[in-house]
Each structure stands twice: as C-alpha cells, then as structure tokens.
Specification:
There is one protein chain. A two-stranded parallel ribbon has the order 1-2. The relative contact order is 0.11. Strand 1, helix 3 and strand 2 form a beta-alpha-beta unit. The longest helix is centred in the middle third of the chain and has 23 residues. The protein is globular. By secondary structure, it is mainly alpha-helical. It folds into 3 domains: about 80 residues, Rossmann fold; about 120 residues, Serine Threonine Protein Phosphatase 5, Tetratricopeptide repeat; about 180 residues, Orthogonal Bundle (DNA Cyclobutane Dipyrimidine Photolyase, subunit A, domain 3).
C-alpha cells in the first residue's frame, strides 16, 4: 500500500472507530493466526467476510477458509465490492472478455441487475476490546513528514462524506457529466473512487442512486456514461481476476520487445515528471495535483500517462509505481489496467499511436488555463493564449507574467514532435 492510501486508511479507520463508539478491534500479523485466536476467544461458530479479488488475497482467503472448515467453523464470503462477479460474465465459449464494450453491453447488462444496497442495520452487537487489539497509531499509517497538508484540506474521509458527495454529484453534476467530465476545472466528476476503494460507499449504492436519477435528469446520456464508467471499474477487477499477471506482464505480448528507454538514461526526465517540472503546463499541473491532493482528474491522468510512456519512452511500470504511492484511490486492478491501457499493451487498450499532445489537450480542455493556474502558480499571470506553451510567448509577455524559463519554470524536457516520431518508430519494432 502506497503512502497516500495508508494516509486515507488511517483516517477511514479513525472515522469507523468513531461510528462504532470506540469499539473497533484492530489486529496486525498473520491473518490465519489472528482469526484462529479470535474464533477461540469469542467461541465463534461462523466467520463471514466480503471477498477480495487481488490474486494474493484470493490465495490467502482460500487458505483461511480451508483452515476454518477443517476446524468445523462455518465460513461464508460475499460480494461487497463489485456489481457482477468476474466468473459470472463470460463469452459464449466460456472464455473471458478482453474488450470493454461487449464485456459491459453483452456480458454485464445481460446479467441479473446489480442488487440494491441493504439498509443500515437497526442494531448491531459489537464485542468490546478483545485481547491483542491494537490502537490505530500502532499501525504507523501516517507519514513521518508533513506532506499531507493539502490532502487534509481536500478530503472528508468518512462514510457520511461519501454519501454527501454522491448526493451532491447526482443532484448537481451528473446532468452534465458526459461532456463536463473531460474538463479538469469543472466539477462534473464524482470523486467517489477513494470511498469506493475503501468500502466507505458501495458501487451498488452509486449505481442505483444514478439510475434512479434518470427520471429527473433530462440528459440520459450522462447517466449512461456514468454507469459505464462504473463498468470500467468492474472491467479492471475482471481483468485482474482472469489475468492475474496484469500488474507485471503486458497482456499484449508483442510489447515484451518494446524498446523502452533504459532507466539509467531517463532518471532526470522521470524525476521531472514526478515533480511536475516537465515544462508542459498541463502535465505539470496534473502531477502536482496528484502529489498535493492524492487525486488527479481522469482526463489529465491519460495525458500525463501518455507523456511518460510515449513521449519519454519510460516503462509503464515506473508510472504505475508512482501512482500507487501517490493516489488515495490506488488499487491494484485499476492502476495496472489503466497503465496498460495508456501504454497500448493491455486489454482494449488505446492504440499506441494515439499519443495525447499535452498542448492541444490543454487548449481544448483547459482553454482559459484555470486548472493550470491552480496547480502551477508560477504561470498564474500568463495570458490564456500562451499558458499552454509558455516557451512560445514573446519575451515581453513572459516578463510581464513574471516567468523566467529555465529559472522559475522549466523549459520543455523534450520536443513534443520529435518525441512523438521516436515513439512511433519504437512501436514499429513490435510489429516485426
């Protein structure tokens, strides 16, 4: 678990403990040993849990399940995270889908509709503190240095906040989601992903709240688009389940010979990308938003990802590793699938030759540069005409805006046209 996710987990557990009136029990260590101890301590007749879908967690849970069954303890597991189980959605030949649209339209939507969420229990019997239970601080989830100041200001980490955010999104922002979701300075995105990842709200709740809103929202296309985005979340978990090598291996094997630039040759470019100092304002704004808030707008995620793997020719593993550490919504399925998608080597991936130009993307989706100004304050006074590519601005414009290229804002780390040509030449080698 990355640093940002650990930070979120700390505050999520703190909120949960408060809602349980301080009765949350926390244990750390071998889960089989811990569960054995708890079963004996409370004389449990049954153990129930929600399923996980990461390969190592599946193996762990199978081991625990067998151990408990051998001890004559009833075991039940449930789907608390997905709309459809990955083993239920298969093609006619019983093989898994590799393309999203038929997976979602023919596979998922032909299944029984996702169940409606259950109501909050009217009463719960919660055990008091059990032997060996730790305090939250014993997990050491918080950073040792204060890099989380802006994250604290950005997020309310609680189940109530998740419900409020969903309500606000459905009533205010869903109407214009289809088009508005592409503009990083507009509010038309749900920002539910970390709450979904940590189980503070269920996908079923989001699905049905949006579906029910279709009757009061004129733009049905926006509702359908949002539901399909939840479908993409499902697809990532689906791919990880059926292709457990997803985090480490290219799903399209021809990319195994792709000539990525050696790490030793790209260390400076990688660090510039990580710190938001590439000289390309939209890329830099996105990377700074990521580090400051633990989040990045999805459109911008595609741009910064394309820039790393195609313009810089840096392996998608490096991007995946950085996002894993910095995202509060980082999960193995979505992180791996998304980076393989942008690199062109995954399932239903964007064609490699689809190289996002950070200048034209910025001009189209942040025309006035408001998103850039928010996260790249060095460019706050640049006129909109030049903020997307400040190196093209006349000297007097730069001076008036207080921008000194190479001093208080970097010159571009690469030439966008040359790097595109280099990427396409590298891609040709995978076709031989």
């Amino acid at each position: 678990m990355g640093g940002a996710s650990r930070w979120w987990l700390h505050h999520a557990l703190k909120s949960l403990n408060q809602s349980l009136e301080g009765k949350l029990n926390i244990f750390k260590g071998d889960p089989q040993v811990i569960i054995h101890h708890l079963v004996d301590q409370v004389s449990a007749k049954a153990v129930l849990w929600n399923r996980c879908y990461e390969p190592w967690r599946i193996a762990r849970d199978r081991k625990i399940k067998k151990f408990l069954q051998d001890a004559s303890v009833e075991v039940q597991s449930f789907n608390g995270a997905l709309l459809w189980e990955p083993w239920d959605v298969l093609k006619k030949d019983q093989t898994p889908y590799k393309v999203f649209t038929p997976y979602y339209r023919r596979g998922c939507l032909s299944q029984v509709p996702p169940r409606r969420p259950l109501p909050v229990p009217s009463a719960m019997q919660i055990a008091s503190k059990l032997d060996g239970s730790l305090g939250l601080d014993d997990l050491h989830l918080l950073p040792e240095i204060n890099w989380d100041t802006q994250m604290k200001a950005r997020w309310d980490i609680s189940e109530a906040a998740a419900q409020d955010r969903l309500d606000d999104f459905v009533m205010q922002d869903l109407q214009n989601y289809r088009e508005g979701r592409n503009f990083p300075d507009k509010p038309n995105v749900s920002r539910l992903s970390p709450y979904l990842h940590f189980g503070q709200i269920s996908t079923n709740t989001a699905w049905h709240r949006a579906s029910d809103a279709a009757g009061i929202i004129e733009n049905d296309a926006s509702v359908d688009t949002f539901l399909s985005e939840l479908g993409w979340r499902e697809f990532s978990h689906y791919l990880l389940y059926h292709f457990p090598q997803l985090p480490k291996e290219n799903l399209q094997k021809r990319f195994d010979i792709f000539p990525w630039a050696p790490d030793t040759d790209t260390d400076a470019e990688l660090k510039a990308w990580q710190k938001g100092k590439t000289g390309y304002p939209l890329v830099d704004a996105g990377m700074r938003e990521l580090y400051d808030t633990g989040y990045m707008h999805n459109r911008v995620r595609m741009v910064v990802g394309s820039f790393l793997v195609k313009n810089l020719l840096i392996h998608w593993h490096r991007g995946e590793e950085w996002f894993w550490d910095c995202l509060v919504d980082a999960n193995l399925a979505a992180n791996s699938a998304s980076w393989q998608w942008i690199a062109g080597c995954g399932a239903d991936a964007a064609p490699f030759f689809r190289i996002f130009n950070p200048i034209t993307q910025s001009e189209k989706f942040d025309k006035q540069g408001e998103y850039i100004r928010r996260y790249v304050p060095e460019l706050a006074h640049m006129p909109a005409k030049y903020i997307h590519a400040p190196w093209l601005a006349p000297a007097d414009i730069l001076a008036a805006a207080g921008v000194n290229l190479g001093v208080n804002y970097p010159a571009p780390v690469i030439d966008i046209k040359e790097s595109r040509e280099r990427a396409l030449a590298a891609f040709k080698l995978t076709k031989n």
